[in-house]
Design a protein that fits this description.
The chain has 360 residues and is of the alpha/beta class. The relative contact order is 0.11. A 5-stranded mixed β-sheet has the order 2-4-3-6-7. Helix 2 runs antiparallel to helix 8 and helix 14 crosses helix 15. It is built from 18 helices and 7 strands.
């Protein structure tokens, strides 16, 4: 009896922990891009975080997303924004951004991205500054400015879809084709915190580092909070990047050709199943975010989630315009063609209903 009670208590605790994890995930997924940029800024402004990432004994590093980089708009100044919106806050930001661009030009874009954006070398911060002939104060200022400018990434992204859609969208990336291999697509993220990827805590070094540092009680509490925030931010960014990757993969033929009939069916529910999250989580993730397509058009991310009937209608419209749906062509033949050429398995009844719509 006691064993049964312990088992029930353990299962109950696991269920509560799972529910708490899902609630935390939902909360962080629902954060807007400016809000989460503020969370990144708070995290990376902590001296303890700086020591973990840039100290002599490194216990934290960044891992870039595959096939991803930073949008070139980050390096462009948009003075017309200050004039157009007349906000002292915007003017102040543009001045800071100009200061940042001046520092980047001084050390070179490659060095900036290697040391201050991605931290690829893993060198201690004083050594980085010496190598680049910067004072540590100047190096710290670059890090701070990247976080501050990144928190206001709308100043180096394309015009948003919100003006026409009547709802606020945040453009998080441009999808590009590799000029050397147009079959390959990659992301250019509009904010530094996105381009940097995710955090990796080197737990095998962490315990020895804590002993070496002889952390005081307050530092230990701060470290626990930092590690928890790193975990939550990683969870959020991992989920969103999976959504971006799977949507882009599913719609790669359309994104490479701009041919509407080459879209593929991908429902919100199916996307959630592939990622292993609740449909409501995917709905929150795609609700207020947009992407810039390879031909420069910005669209809500959710517009790339196409229902099966929408895709079938588009294909049938293309076939009709090309004169390929004639009186003698049966619904059965169209059904087999959809399966063979596009990998779309639908019933003959669905084909008939869509066919009647396109010929009406």
């Amino acid at each position: 009896m006691a064993d049964k009670q312990r088992l029930e208590m353990t299962q109950g605790l696991q269920s509560r922990q799972l529910l708490q994890g899902r609630l935390a995930a939902a909360k962080w997924i629902a954060l807007s891009e400016p809000e989460v940029a503020g969370e990144f800024k708070d995290l990376e402004s902590d001296p303890l975080f700086h020591e973990m990432l840039y100290g002599g004994t490194r216990v934290l590093r960044r891992k870039r997303w595959p096939a991803a980089g930073l949008h070139s708009g980050f390096y462009e100044l948009k003075e017309d924004l200050a004039a157009g919106r007349g906000s002292p806050d915007i003017s102040d930001l543009l001045e800071k951004k100009e200061d940042l661009i001046t520092l980047i030009r001084r050390i070179g874009q490659d060095a900036f991205e290697k040391y201050f954006l991605y931290g690829a070398e893993g060198k201690p911060f004083p050594q980085i500054c010496r190598d680049l002939k910067l004072s540590e104060a100047e190096g710290k200022r670059i890090l701070d400015l990247v976080l501050e400018v990144g928190a206001r990434s709308e100043f180096f992204t394309p015009p948003t879809a919100s003006e026409s859609a009547g709802k606020g969208y945040h453009c998080i990336a441009r999808i590009e084709q590799d000029p050397r291999d147009p079959e390959n697509l990659y992301f250019l993220f509009t904010a530094p915190q996105w381009a940097r990827g995710r955090y990796e805590v080197m737990y095998d070094r962490l315990e020895s580092w804590k002993k070496e540092r002889k952390l005081e009680a307050e530092e230990r509490r701060r470290l626990r909070r930092l590690l928890k925030k790193i975990e939550l931010l990683n969870m959020r960014q991992d989920t969103l990047f999976q959504i971006l990757s799977r949507v882009t993969t599913a719609q790669s033929a359309y994104l490479r050709t701009r041919v509407e009939s080459r879209r593929r069916p991908l429902s919100l529910r199916e996307l959630a199943r592939r990622i292993g999250v609740a449909p409501s989580t995917v709905s929150r993730a795609v609700g207020t975010r947009s992407l810039e397509l390879p031909w420069g058009q910005e669209v809500p991310l959710k517009s790339l989630l196409s229902g099966q009937r929408v895709v079938v209608l588009s294909i049938l419209e293309q076939w009709l315009d090309a004169g390929e749906i004639k009186a003698g062509v049966t619904d059965e033949e169209l059904m087999r063609r959809l399966a063979g050429e596009h990998g779309i398995a639908v019933s003959r009844r669905t084909v008939n209903e869509c066919r009647r719509k396109v010929v009406a």
